[in-house]
Amino acid sequence: MSDSAQRQGDAFENLLHEERRFPPSEEFAAQALAQPSLYEEARSRGTEFWADQARACLSWETDFTQTLDWSEAPFAKWFVGGKLNAAYNALDRHVEEGRGDRVAIHFEGEPGDTRSYTYAELTESVKKAANAFESLGVQKGDRVAVYLPMIPEAVITMLACARIGAVHSVVFGGFSADALRSRIDDAEAKLVVTADGTYRRGKPSALKPAVDAALEKEGSTITNVVVVRRNNEPVEWTEGRDVWWDDVVDTASSEHTAVAHDSEHPLFILYTSGTTGKPKGILHTTGGFLTQTAFTHKYTFDLRPETDVFWCTADIGWVTGHSYVTYAPLINGATQLMYEGTPDTPHQGRWWELIEKYKVSILYTAPTAIRTFMKWGRDIPKKYDLSSVRVLGSVGEPINPEAWMWYREIIGGGKAPIVDTWWQTETGAHMISPMPGVTSTKPGSAQVAVPGIAVDVVDEMGQSVPNGSGGYLVVREPWPSMLRGIWGDPERFKQTYWSRFDDMYFAGDGAKKDEDGDIWLLGRVDDVMNVSGHRLSTTEIESALVSHPSVAEAAVVGAKDETTGEAVVAFVILRGSAKDDDDIVTTLRNHVGKEIGPIAKPRNILVVPELPKTRSGKIMRRLLKDVAEGREVGDATTLADNTVMQQIAASLRK
Ligand code: WT7
């Protein structure tokens, strides 16, 4: 095992002595959708289990003839020969089957404005948007960049693309103009859908200027920019290119037939950070993605579409927002809440007020949010009626037992089961999670593979480790919502995920099996950081830093942070002419914000005279991590220059 995985393993050792167990109540267990038989069914049916789920969760225009074609591994084809339309499955069929009056989305804007869409209304909006995009020349297979805040138009846009068969590429609104442009270029997108802006912490916040800046440099593939009016702030306008959503969508026809697409037709691309400076365009296709997201949404959360109100707090800019805001809840005919703003606007009780107001029964959020609420104090949620809550979900990073217990007691009233769901942009849907009516939960552990999924923890050699040991997390069998590749880069796909071990998907996470065989996630074992549940690449931030004229060299590490899980800490060597003062730190932080986005801004930038390197020139990030976390520096014997760490220590004392 690598040094960092070993160290993480040691740090988590104490977790494995966690003795607390929380079995579901008899009442919950008796009525739960997922029963122990679901695991037996998955075992006995093998791959055909997923054929059953595909037919149960979705309506196919043409049934598939083969469940899985793995002959061109690692490029999978699921539900071969099947044809379906994602938007039809999410919308029209609910209307046709008499659920048109059910609320699909309750939207709450940050300023307190509200809108609700029934399934019938959302269907109509998506049909209009599909017609509007087609009138702008968007056709099946074209890519559409989506740069929108958390407003219903984001979901409408994604589904309108899916309806046409156009491939959406959502770029998180917190990413910079440069990041947006590189994603537009990589996917060769034809259209951008954006908004004038949104609201953040009680103030209007602009989005359109970033799109203008992204398209300033000649040679983009974009022909039109559709702009949703959200905050009514003035915007620059490029005639002939920019069009208002109101003008093209509101006036469009509400008749639009959803043509069925092949099960393997691309549904979306979503960029995520890897171990190099260049983000990867993760490609997902239709039938498999929809099957596993809908299946997991139903069973992991014990979803009752007639009565539950589901709230996934993730932004649509991340995979969680794709799988568990746009697709699964609508495929399953659920009612969901969508909230635009920050949790502390206008006050720190906003989320709990919303849960009380909409009677949210299933809450799905990230440990970083829970830790923030813990800091604000339990008195705040205690002021609200949270009795509607019956299932709680966690995602994005390991949840520490303390936060887990707080979540259970304060938000879940000591009885709602917590499902800690491990998955990735690449996996598309939950892969490891308790089943709320079956699993006796342990604070801090994601525990068991989802029925039908084969995960394992293996050693360096790819051998399954015994209970009580740690290693690398792998997936042994293909799964329906697996990524189908990296956009435009099949080699990188094979290299990144399929070359580390034979015939296994390498997730990039370290993990341990406890004495019961339950899985505990230990964080990334590669140069990927997890800040507030968002993935950032050390290399990407390093290249942003060295692109600044004052920086000669840079090394970035993820350091433990009480609230955000990890925080970005950068070590930089300045060029001879640059001055080491407070300004340079601010300048460099802003520079990273401009290159990538505010989320990537380092928490600390430390100016140092040297970086620790091996004789072959590889930066020893492990040693810098020790410094960043205030630990005694570990074994430095492989350093080319063994005085470097002393030089760094001396420079930081100055
Ligand atoms: C990485 C994937 C999955 C949607 C959000 C993040 C970490 C995710 C958990 C969890 C421990 C987790 C892993 C994974 N991660 N969920 N429940 N417990 N770690 O998606 O940006 O693709 O990041 O997030 O390290 O590899 P992502």
Would you kindly provide a written description of the structure presented here, covering whatever features stand out?
The chain is built from 21 helices and 30 strands. The protein is α/β, with parallel strands linked by helices and 654 residues long. The protein folds into two domains: 26-510, 3-Layer(aba) Sandwich (Rossmann fold), CATH 3.40.50; 532-653, ANL, C-terminal domain (GMP Synthetase, Chain A, domain 3, 2-Layer Sandwich), CATH 3.30.300. It has an eight-stranded mixed beta sheet with strand order 12-11-8-6-7-14-15-23, sandwiched between helices. The longest helix has 17 residues, at 119-135. The model is unreliable at 1-5 (pLDDT under 50). The site of 5'-O-[(S)-butoxy(hydroxy)phosphoryl]adenosine has 24 residues, from helix 12, strand 20, strand 24 and strand 25.
